TrEMBL record:
Name of this protein: CsbD family protein
InterPro entries: CsbD, YjbJ_sf
Stretches assigned to the CsbD-like domain: 9-59
The organism of origin for this protein: Pseudonocardia xinjiangensis
Gene3D superfamilies named in the record: YjbJ
Family according to the record: Belongs to the UPF0337 (CsbD) family.
Length: 68
């Protein structure tokens, strides 16, 4: 299970970085469609990473905050 989670997290981060690259390339070239696709990929990757963090919290592997 941990291996699947790790590869999933890695894939989500990769999608976010690919999106950032597309968005930046679109900005430099003036290609609005590429900018929009890049933004979309970034948001999807960021959202999926957030979902993984929530899953980890429920599985007991995430960071826990202790209140005094």
């Amino acid at each position: 299970m941990a291996v699947v989670s790790f590869t999933s997290k890695l894939g989500n981060k990769a999608q976010e970085l690919r999106g950032r690259f597309k968005r930046n390339t679109g900005e430099v070239t003036g290609n609005r469609r590429l900018q929009a696709k890049g933004r979309s990929d970034e948001v999807k990757g960021r959202f999926r990473r957030m979902v993984e963090k929530v899953k980890d919290m429920f599985r007991g592997r995430g960071r826990r905050r202790h209140h005094p």
